[in-house]
Structures are given as C-alpha cells and as structure tokens.
Design goal:
Elements lengths: L3 E4 L11 E9 L20 H13 L6 E4 L9 E5 L6 E6 L12 E8 L9 E8 L5 E7 L18 H9 L3 E5 L23 H19 L5 E11 L1 H10 L6 E7 L5 E3 L2 E2 L2 H12 L6 E6 L7 H13 L4 E6 L15 H14 L28 H9 L5 E4 L5 E4 L5 H15 L6
Helix pairs in contact: 3-4, 5-6
Length: 440
Amino acid sequence: MKHKRLFGYWPNNLEGPYRYFRFGFHSLKKDPRLTLADAPALAGGVGPRTLFLFLFVLVFVPHIGSQTVIAPNSANQPSVTISFGTETQPEITLSIGSKNEGLIARPQYQSRSIRIPMPLAGPDGLEAFLVRPYGPGRYPLVLINHGTPRDSHERATMDPARILPLAMEFARRGWVSAIVMRRGYGNSGGKFAETIGSCTHPDYKHASQEAARDIRAAIQYLGKQPEVDSRRILVVGVSTGGLATIALTAAPPDGLVAAINFAGGDGSIREDVVCQPEVLVDTFRSFGESSRTPTLWIYSENDHYFNLALAKQFYRAFTDAGGNADFIQAPQFQEDGHNLFTFDGIPIWTRYVDDFLKQQGLVLRADLLPAPAVPNIPLPPELSPSWRSTFHYYLAAPPYKAFAVSTDGSFGYRFGEPTEEVARKSAISRCEERTKTGVC
C-alpha cells in the first residue's frame, strides 16, 4: 500500500485529559516520515511508544472503514482509538483517553454550504446548506423545502438559517439534511417560476410542478455527494413547499421513499382567503392519480392560510384518486397554526414525524443526538422583538458566521462561511441591501 502523511491540528474547544485530532491524509513520495512537525498536536502528553504504535497501525494495517484500539499495558498509560474513514471520505480520527474518563466528546455534526447546479438557475445555481451527524459514511437524505411569503418582496430576504433548527431535528435522527432555496428565493439564481397567474384563473399545477423541478434537480445533484445514501430519500415541504412535495410524488425520482406535507397549498392572498380553492382541490386530485409514495399530511386546527375544512378536501381528493396519505389534525398552534413547522413547534411536530418514520421503517437511530447548544446572547437593541426567533436561528447556526444590524433595525447575517472575514463582509453587505436610512 502507499505511504500516507498526516496533517494535524488542535481543536480549540476541547479541554481536559483527552486530546482529539482529525487528520486528512494524502499520498506522498516514497519513504515519507512522520515527525512532530507533521502532527504538532501529538507533541503534548503522548509518548514515543504511542507514536510508534500509531505509525505502525497507519502504515501496515489495511484499515479503510475500520477502527483500531490500542489498549494500555498499565493503568497509567492512555488508551488510543484510531478510526479510519472510507475511500470516498479518507480521514483518521485519533482519540487518546485516560484510565479515569470515557470516550472523548467529539463534534456531533458536520455542515457545509453548497451551490446546486441547475441550468434554469443560471451560474449561481440553487443556494443550499447541508447538516448531518459527524463521521464518515453515507446517510439517508432529507430535503426540506420552504414556503412562499404573501409579500413577494420578502422572497429575496429568505435564508436557510430560518430552516436550520428544523433541519437539525432530522440530523439528530441520523439524516443528512439539505435546505434548498428554490429559484427566485434568497441567494438562489434564476427567476421566480412559481407564479399561479391571476387570482381568478390560478394555475396551481404549473406553479407546483416548477417548484418540484427545483427539488428534483437538488435530489439529482445531492444524490451524488459522498455523504448521501441516495437509496433512501425523504422530502419535507411546508405551505407551497408542501404542495410541491406532493407534486414531486406524482412523478417520484429514484430513491424517494416517503414525503411529508406540512400545511401544503398555494394561493392564500390574505388570512382565510384562497384564490379559487376548488381549483386547488382539483390540483391535489390530479397528483393523487399517479402518486403512490407514502405521505404524511399535517394541518393545524387554526391554520389561517388553508383552513382545516379545506385541508380535508385536499386530502379526500388526493386519496380518492389513489394517493397514499395519512392525515394529522394538529391542535391549535399560537395565533396561526400555519406556523407549526417552525422552531417553536418542534415539540409538537416531531412526535408526528417520529411516528410516521417508524411506520415506514425509517428510524435510523435508537437515541437522538443532542441538540446543539445555543449561546445566551441578548437580542441586539436595534432589532425588533418580532425578529427574536430569527436571531435565535442565527445563534444556532454553525460557524463561521456574522450578524450585522443597522440603526433603523434592518439586518443581515451569514453562516457556514469559510472564514470569519467572509462571514462578516457578507453579513454587512446583506444588511446594507435591506436598510434604507440606517448604517450597518
């Protein structure tokens, strides 16, 4: 086998008798040597014997996809656990313990921002963010797609951070969660393609199929990523994203095993008013004619976008046409149950989702991973209290991140950037785009 060389670093957030190192390894020329300069983290607290054993295992053991434990000869020596990645994700994890403590507290999640190529989205593609449990291997994919604000000007201000806490709930359950912004939303490229036309003659089917086109492109691209198990795909959508999810099941991509519709619909122009609701019912019926994917539908009793009576019409039309769906009538939630699929609704909607996943044989973990800790940072004084939940989403977002606020209360934020400086500049730029009179 080829020799490998290690590159190590100290993570600054770990303390105590454990030291944790993550190494990428790359082929070098013949007879490279491991030195303390190559892996400076090994210099403290690890003796020459441990280094020799580590190097021996690295060079001479066929180890891809395996784990090796070097047991101590005495109670005073640390144990060493070496875990190796896969051929598509080659990495080495070294945990050095002591006789008094258990395994190291490793990072729980990995995340990254990506751009999904799609010709209709232009050179910018679709903005997306992935979060998954930490460690090598492939994970089933859940793709979460958003709704559409009534005010068209708000589409450009939408951000994956608003959905991140929801995506984290699926990551806690063992999924790689993808938040995808469709064309015309947030920083995604392309023109908004989901118009229904006029309120008197809405074309809901065309609008939802255009949204489903974006979801399909995202699935096709994400299914090729090294961390994704493309044989098991779950799609979750809320509001117009829920209708788009149902549209997708009518012509499902390979690997789609289930779908969840949170308060799906379209054409809600104001509270309790929907453009030509009978046309929307017919749209659900048309999708039910070919959809056979197991779906879960969740609507709240006080949904003021699509009231419960109308939602039940959607469901009956879909299932009478042959669609496969379970309907959940959720209790009233806050002032508008349409907002159930949010951070505040997590204790409620996760119960329904867990039951559905169990029915479909899609329970991936016996125990949930812990939720990421959120720092106790007060709301900036310039920010309206109505944006408190958004600021909470930002605090829960992964680094590198920055939040900029102007004197008039406008704000911008970015997360998942490669450096602090990139995050800071992007946040300020986003803030300056929104403010009219203030200074960021």
